[in-house]
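Pasting as-is:
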Amino acid sequence: MTVPQFHPIRRSSPGRLARQRWGSGQAIQQADTADRPRTVDVVTGETAAVDWVAEPLGIDVGSLVVFRSRRFLVEDRPVQLASSYLPVDLARRTPIMHTDAGPGGIYARLAENGHAPATFTEYLRARMPVPEETDRLDLPEGTPVVEITRHAFDDSHRCVEVNRMVLDGSAYLLDYTFSA
């Protein structure tokens, strides 16, 4: 019996975050997976901000933020965990708090509220997963993860989202193309 080979997901930046993508109603994940079968489990709500969320958002630790927690599966394989944290004044009582935020996702909703992301900063590090990540991503022993923390800023340089992603290190090829 032949086991189908899982082809790495090519995560191409910065193009995947381009305004024309989410501004035209496309999902950012579509840039990575194209037509491969993809599902996402989403949980939303409000929570107290921890230090690495509060600092870039310019709020006090413990202040409420809106969160969107997702687990992405591609071809029925768990490949990514992602949690976004947004200021309550931008996200509370908006479609951002729905499991389906609508065409273009949360960036399109922020744009509708006058806070479209204009710049992004991503911080990457490779590490070994914690037990919860191993379980949720169904990782074989010894598989590293790539942790990416993204800050999205609007035109006024306000941080409008902090997103921490944990990627199965064996499932992704990270591709960065930019001008010199």
